[in-house]
Fold each of these.
Amino acid sequence: MHDELLQLEPRPLWRHFHLLCQTPRPSGHETAVRRLVVGFGRTLGLETLKDEAGNVIIRKPATPGMEERPGVVLQAHLDMVPQKDAGCSHDFANDPIEAYVDGDRVRARGTTLGADNGIGAGAAMAVLESSTIVHGPLEALFTANEEAGMTGALGLKPGVLKGSILLNLDSEDEGELFIGCAGGLDATIAFDCPQEHLPPGNRAFEVRVKGLSGGHSGMDINLGRANANRVLAALLLRGAETHGMRLASFEGGSLRNAIPREASAVVTVPDEDAGRFHGMFPDLAAAIGEQLAAADPGCSIDIIPGDEPSSVIQRDAAGRFLRGLSNCPNGVIRMSADIDGLVESSSNLAIVRTSPGRAIAECLLRSSTDGGMEELKDAFTGVFPPLGATALFSGGYPGWRPDPASPVLRLMQEAYRSLYGRAPGVSAVHAGLECGIIGDLCPGLDMVSFGPTIRHPHSPGEYVVISSVGRFWDFLVRVLAEI
């Protein structure tokens, strides 16, 4: 039950996270949560601004005697990724998240939890509300639509922030301080897929790939998890080559920054080949399951009788489309030579949709270097135009270059060591934090990102470790006092 969260410590943070769980806030549908935060700030009597991009800024004066301290911006985003299990009836635009306590974890029933970034937003609200936490001049920046394009950060006006230090509360490994992130770029691939009438004497099937783990296409891309779009395309290519299969439709994935967990297609096969086509799937499913046993043990492949479509994609066009999906750059492309274990460049074949006469594939490219991003673009243009498809790139956002000499980083390292008797880790992250955009708009900001331990964000398996939230909160309070 939701009320379980209200008994957790630190209670102010969990109370605000509980309230955020009650407020629908999928990306692109943030009116209700924005109204909540604006009302919260004004009820406290604090200066509260809402800008044209949907961001909310709340300013709180310094604790008496700390007026001359550097100004600090606490930054979190308001939206959450709307992912749910197959068969789950949850309506993200209207229903509250059903969060519950599971040992030392908080999870959600059948959906993403929204700890990314609800814990960070709840922490900022708890600081704003507190009458006991000491701090210098404070701003809380709640950005809009981070998960679906970072349009809030991109729409931030230069000069609107007064602080000189930005603490981003959107990281997912407690005990790690992040000082850099990857930039991103959207790739949209368009295929012409002329239709033709289905000749008589065919049987229709629906082929489904499901049960994959999915996850964040930056944070989890190095885990070797399967991409449902790639798995399904490979299966269908095999069927087209050996059983005269025709493709009617293909649908997979839902968000650019989530590794697709499910994909499905409607196909037809000549009556005389239908039995052999159906019979090949158990062996293929077993082979794929064995291949993915360590990284994605829940993978399942189903083939069921389907309704006969009125038309199918022309054979050559369908073949080019499926070959393009199978050859699309996907997963880890290059590891960093500078930071051990860090992915430098990656790509996620995130969303695939067919419609009459056309097919679209949407990918998110990430790289921490300009050269790596150019290499990715070259790879896409090498695969798709020769197949007759177009590759358009848009929505690019900058990375955040690490500054190991950051004064606030050194202060935070000492504060963490003082609290917990050990040094925190310092790293960069292969994901698109808003720090890159905000730092580009507001040159000179000293920035560090940190947060509690969150696992499997952007998937229904998402959870936050309760004990890590307490450590994250105590650390935040200590840092605000010492800056």
Amino acid sequence: MSDESGYVGDTITFHGRNFPTDEQFDIEWRTVEGSWGVLEAHEIVGPQFRPRTETIATVTTDADGRFDHEWTIPEDYGSFHTVSVTTKDGTTVDQAEFEISPWFELDRKSAELGDFVVVTGYGLGPGVMVNNYQVAWDNTTVGFLTGVRNRGTATAEIRAVGPPGEHILQVWRGYRGMPFLQNNTQSPYGKVANGRQTAWTVDVTEPETDPQTAWVDPMPEERPLSTHYPELDEASEAELSISPEYGQSGTEAIITGEQFQPHTEVDLIWYHHSGHEPQGPDKPPLPTITAEPWPETLPTVETDADGRFQVDVTIPKDIGSTRPITARVGGRDVAVTGFMMQPSIETFSPTSGPVGTEIEIELTGVGWTQYEMSPLFVYDNGPLGYACGLSDKEDGTTIRTILQASGQPGWHFIDAYPTLFRMQEEEPEFELNAHLSYLDNHPMRPVPAFHFAFEITE
């Protein structure tokens, strides 16, 4: 090969010499495919990788047994990859190794106060030592990004926080979940990006208009996870459905039943997941969380002569993720459907005040699964702490916290990022850090971040 190492997006050349003349060969690229291991759509095992081989080119040798073929390195995981030349029957004739080095880019070097700059990493992982990268703003670690999914590519949005002027954004690497400060001087794994830029000066400018004070990332269309449905008491031909299948509390939905017995009373039952996540050395292998019925949350209906019914409902306030709904006839559940509860902001108040002002934040629809239950709050890009979306208390449908306003007069920013609450595999250390690459690398299902702006007055 023309080079022994390079970056995603580089062009390299394969040089074939001393092969049989006038014959076709395949060039194969050996790599991996990555995903998150998650049990019961709830408990995170950790990053999982399986071998993957792609035929990236078919070449024909000339009369001298030579070939030259240019190839652009696609988005893929970092580290070493075997490149093989094989015959049409799959026999390997020769092979070499090529190393992909990670690299990072910033979408811009100037942003209004409160806006986001986008950091994209290419060629990350999959190895434990090169799969956990941290982003720091003014020497404060905001959180981590990883390329477990998307073949080693990861995206993070970082707030431009004040005061207006020049600020430093830097990408570090550290398998323990925090920067190893000898990355670029004495690390046995080499520099973070093998010499390419990993630190930028960002010019934060005064905003032309006041920042938006509170919002949740947009959520895509999604379906409930049947894994989280309770078992039915008896099998039947009855069918239950809801439209839409996803949304926030307060969503207006229609529940439809079909193939029930005619003129039959049906209780619609809403289910709430409750329990706790055991901690400590004596914790059981699985958390004790179960779906429990919430009677009288939804109405009782009566089927018509065809065994059908349709009823309008308002989605109640509850914790997030899949909310099972069953149809109960004669005290027995005979059909089930579900609603994918998405997060929303209930309270952010006040939005301005002097230093020391108590800022109340209430969130609802935060899920109970280990990949969505513990948003981590950062204040002006500095980690503050986490909250928990699972509680057995009466007000357990809502996360509530009170923060103290601090800093110089002007705008300050609070962001609550998704985390991985607990992971079976101990390395790399992803637990309870702000997962900045949640946008394209979070386990199981999309989970949003929450964003707030508070103005400190004189």
